[in-house]
Design brief:
With 101 residues, this protein is an alpha+beta fold. 18% of the residues lie in helices and 42% in strands. It is built from one helix and five strands, in the order βαββββ. It has a five-stranded antiparallel beta sheet. Strand 4 and strand 5 form a beta hairpin. The chain is globular, with a radius of gyration of 13 Å.
Length: 101
């Protein structure tokens, strides 16, 4: 998390296995919010924000040229470590920067 300001977001990074696991954990919630099933749900990049836990802002490829941005909150382990979908932005492209929303 180098380069992150207190309360700010980190610089964007390529998604890794841990970020994909977060996406997998909230895929059904994202599908419910979008009102459709996603055949593809692949994390591409992310930024994060330390709060009481961590907010992850993740760019997700959902098929074709279509992407969505999701905000996933992971509670601190001492508070249960629960993972939840906080918000979602649809109709994004690969070129759209993932940032705080």
């Amino acid at each position: 998390m180098s380069g992150m300001k207190c309360g700010g977001t980190s610089p964007p990074s390529d998604a890794d296995e841990n970020i994909q696991k977060l996406c997998d954990a909230v895929k059904s919630d994202a599908e419910a919010k979008a009102g459709r099933k996603f055949d593809v749900f692949t994390a591409k990049s992310y930024t994060q924000q330390c709060v009481c836990g961590t907010n992850y802002f993740i760019k997700v490829h959902v098929g074709g040229e279509e992407h969505i941005h999701i905000r996933v909150h992971q509670q601190l382990d001492c508070h249960g470590g629960e993972i939840s979908l906080s918000s979602m932005q649809q109709s994004k492209t690969h070129q759209d920067p993932v940032e705080y929303f």
